[in-house]
Amino acid sequence: MKQTNPCYLFCMYEPNTDSVIVNTINDTYTSTPIVISCEECNSAVLLDTPDDIAYLYRLAQENPLLYVELACKPNGLQKYVDAMNLINPS
Question: Which residues pair with 4 in a beta bridge?
């Protein structure tokens, strides 16, 4: 089935507020931006070392849409940090 009115997501990291801003845009509608606080989301993650927080900040800055997707899943950011620690052991 072909979608007749595609929806586009645009995300960007806002360093002044330490947040990711999500905009939904299609041909007929532009939504009010959703603001995801990185500070609040990151505070729910248990870190092996304090330096592990860098994984989350880098993700938010370089791939904000993936950051939002993981932040909206139960334990999504936690699993991301755990996976990064497996890939890059201390």
Answer: none
Q: How far apart are CA 21 and CA 30, in angstroms?
A: 14
Phi-psi region of 18 (alpha: psi -120 to 50; beta: other; left: phi over 0): left
Which residues touch 48 (CB under 8 Å, ≥6 apart)? 85, 90
**How confident is the model at residue 26, as a pLDDT?**
75
Question: What is the C-alpha to C-alpha distance for residues 38 and 20, in angstroms, rounded to an integer?
Answer: 7
DSSP H stretches of helix in 1-90: 38-43, 53-62, 64-71, 76-87
**pLDDT tens digits, residue range 32-51?**
889 999 999 999 999 999 99
CA 39, 43, 45, 49 dihedral sign is positive
Summarised one tens digit per residue, pLDDT across range 1-29 is: 565 666 788 899 999 999 999 988 877 67
Question: Which pLDDT value is given to residue 82?
Answer: 96
